[in-house]
Amino acid sequence: MDEVCDIVPSNKGNNKINVRGYLMVKERNREAIFYWCCAKRKSEGCKGRAVTTLCNNLHYLRSCTDHNHAPQASDAGVAKLTAQIKRQASETRDKPAKIIQDNIISIPEEIHPYIPSPNALRRTISRVRKSEMPPQPQNITEINIPESLCHTLHGNIFLVKDYMVGQERILLFTTRENIQHLANALFWIMDGTFKTVPTIFHQMYTIHAPVGAEDNSRILPLVYALMTRKSE
Q1: Which tens digits make up the pLDDT trace of 15-31?
Q2: Lowest-confidence range among 8-12, 154-158, 209-213, 225-229?
Q3: pLDDT per position as a tens digit, 147-170
Q4: Rounded to 5 degrees, what are φ and ψ at 207?
Q5: Hey, what CATH class is 4-65 in?
Q6: Report for 114-118, 143-147, 228-232: range of highest mean pLDDT
Q7: Of all helices (H) and strands (E), which one includes residue 43?
Q8: Which of 70, 68, 59, 64 is nearest to 8 (CA)?
Q9: Distance between CA atoms of 118 and 103, rounded to whole angstroms?
Q10: 157 to each of 39, 111, 182, 210, how far by Cα in Å?
Q11: SS3 label, residue 58
Q12: Which of 59, 124, 125, 202 maximizes the CB count within 10 A of its CB?
């Protein structure tokens, strides 16, 4: 019993294993003994089975039966790639292009023709992140900003004020660096938008200012205020 089966992790906890090129899904286990069936059991009626023993987080193959189709290493490779991309999407705020590139670069050449398109992988990343977003609050008392959204990617404070004015609420987002840019700017540009805010807020008010040397400056948004009503 020395043949180890690679684990193909899943964000939902339904891990699969690669048994000699076949993807297998768990049927049941009795303590350290795990029973697996072919991942194509429903789609192709495959009756392939495998039994493994879990020891030190490794699955050692005890026995396996034949499948009614040829093994496809690409299936396991693509499943493992997708699982890695989902994990990185969940654990980091990296851009989708970086996540995809980080994981594809180590994939064997023979797997490349079977990799989903970049658009499909981006949709996968979007679904993972959307599923982890907190539900939309129904009123201002339910608003609870996650800690990860209170700071920038560099760890600096971003949610600087949380005001309650009577029955109204204002969330103010900016950084010390942005305030310094405002202090040094010759002019500000201020405006509100009503189309890109959560439903219980009325508008997002932004303050823009030029950033950089005068001959090479850019107008950038530096302060964001989410407001539950239109205010002067």
Answers
A1: 888 888 888 899 999 99
A2: 8-12
A3: 878 888 888 899 998 888 777 888
A4: -120, 120
A5: mainly beta
A6: 114-118
A7: helix 41-44
A8: 59
A9: 12
A10: 46, 43, 17, 22
A11: strand
A12: 59
